[in-house]
Design goal:
Elements lengths: L5 E2 L9 H6 L10 H18 L5 E4 L3 H12 L5 E6 L2 H12 L3 E6 L8 H10 L5 E5 L1 E2 L4 E2 L2 H9 L4 E5 L18 E5 L11 E5 L1 H9 L9 H9 L9 H17 L1 H21 L13 E5 L6 H10 L3 E2 L1 E2 L8 E5 L6 H17 L8 H12 L3
Parallel strand pairs: 1-12, 3-4, 3-5, 5-8, 8-9
Antiparallel strand pairs: 2-10, 6-7, 9-10, 11-14, 13-14
Helix pairs in contact: 2-9, 5-6, 10-13, 12-13
The structure holds pyridoxal-5'-phosphate.
Pyridoxal-5'-phosphate binds next to helix 3.
């Protein structure tokens, strides 16, 4: 077979052709009126996706850079915070806090599970000195989605701020920052924002800005006060990823044209179809509250999960994602976020069926498609 590459991972994700071709234009200088106009259009478009009246800052880094910026700008060494850890990315919050001398009480949960808002409320009551709660919207390592709206209700009643890693989730599932009382919301651009890797976005509520004013953690590149001062002049402190910002303008046009509500429905249909296909194969989901961003599937007994992902990638060139350490091989992840359509689900499920057959796991060819197809067809709008 010709080597055709199918990117089915939860980041980076496929990029629309109009967004790809925008990168082929000559480079423009970033200290120009021409660039400032594009830059301000992008920050306005980002406000729409974030659901906020606050300014959204563009950082030239991967998503983790925005996570680091959140800790460094909100906290001082020795501050007490809560980190909610139910997967690789929740765990990362704790690791960043440690690097900055911030004392995090890590609420460690089984991968794929969620924390009820009542449990967070109890933690905050028991730890009144906590300055910030670090949470995740869509835990991309395991596929579950957290009740950020509930967290917002609980945290808003306390002096603490709610910080949400919206990487992968924001833009695919609702998380209106202002309405849900999220104090710092951040994301990365290579997942639901439909551009190549290299940009991260972040916004702060007035409550978060108060902490930024007094936070003493060391920082330079990610100093949000510098970003704020520069945004007043319609620019960034350092050379931004000019080409990526131009690409983001194109991708935001696609997002705005479709509208967030329809985009959420689209992701829900892809999620429903994927889950139906997986269940039809007799396989089990990992997440207790699965999001519509990706589907994490437990590796069936007797099958080597690492080999399954490698076969899908190497033989069929279907790039789904495996499980990260320490759960390597235990499950695999099929993405359905960003610029993915209904037939990407068919591709992923068919490649999975063929791989399972190769590995000796009994499947009836087409069983997953039979379950997924009606969901796609009936909701194809
Ligand atoms: C991808 C991802 C990250 C890490 O982002 P990078 O862009 O790889 O730095 C963090 N959190 C979540 C929820 C993610 O999906």
């Amino acid at each position: 077979m010709i080597k055709k590459y199918y990117l089915l991972s939860p980041g980076p994700t496929p990029v629309p052709s109009s967004v790809l071709s925008a990168a082929a234009e000559p480079i423009i200088h970033h200290r120009t009126a021409e660039f400032s106009k594009i830059f301000m259009e992008v920050t306005e478009g980002l406000k729409y996706v974030f659901g906020t009246k606050e300014d959204v800052y563009v950082l030239t880094s991967s998503g983790t850079g925005a996570m680091e910026a959140a800790v460094a700008n909100l906290c001082s060494p020795g501050d007490q915070v809560l980190t909610i850890n139910a997967g690789k990315f929740g765990e990362r919050w704790g690791n960043i806090c440690k690097a900055y001398g911030v004392i995090n009480k890590d609420i460690v949960l089984k991968w794929g599970t969620v924390l009820p808002k009542e449990a967070l409320e109890a933690e905050l009551k028991a730890n009144p000195a906590v300055k910030a709660v670090f949470a995740t919207l869509s835990e991309t390592s395991a596929g579950q989605i957290f009740d950020i709206q509930g967290f917002g209700e609980v945290v808003a009643k306390t002096p603490a701020v709610l910080v949400v890693d919206g990487i992968s989730g924001l833009g695919a599932t609702p998380c209106p920052m202002d309405e849900w009382n999220v104090d710092l919301l951040l994301t990365g651009a290579q997942k639901s924002f439909m551009i190549p890797p290299g940009l991260a976005y972040l916004a702060c509520s007035p409550k978060a800005w108060k902490l930024v004013e007094t936070a003493k953690c060391q920082k330079f590149y990610f100093d949000l006060k510098k970003a704020r001062k520069n945004l007043e002049k319609q620019t960034t402190p350092w050379t931004p990823g000019v080409t990526l910002i131009i690409q983001q303008k194109k991708a935001l046009e696609i997002i705005r044209e479709m509208g967030l509500e329809k985009l959420y429905v689209h992701h829900r249909v892809l999620g429903d179809a994927t889950r139906a296909g997986i269940k039809a194969l007799g396989l089990e989901l990992l997440a207790e509250r699965p999001g519509n961003i990706l589907t994490a599937v437990k590796t069936p007994a007797g099958i080597d999960g690492v080999k399954l992902v490698k076969t899908m990638q190497n033989k069929y060139m279907a790039y789904i994602a495996g499980a990260q350490d320490p759960h390597k091989g235990e499950f695999f992840r099929i993405a359905h976020l960003g610029y993915m359509g209904g037939f990407d689900i068919i591709t992923a499920l068919t490649a999975l069926e063929m791989t399972l057959t190769d590995l000796g796991y009994p499947v009836v060819a087409g069983a997953s498609i039979k379950a997924a197809e009606p969901i796609l067809r009936e909701n194809w709008a």
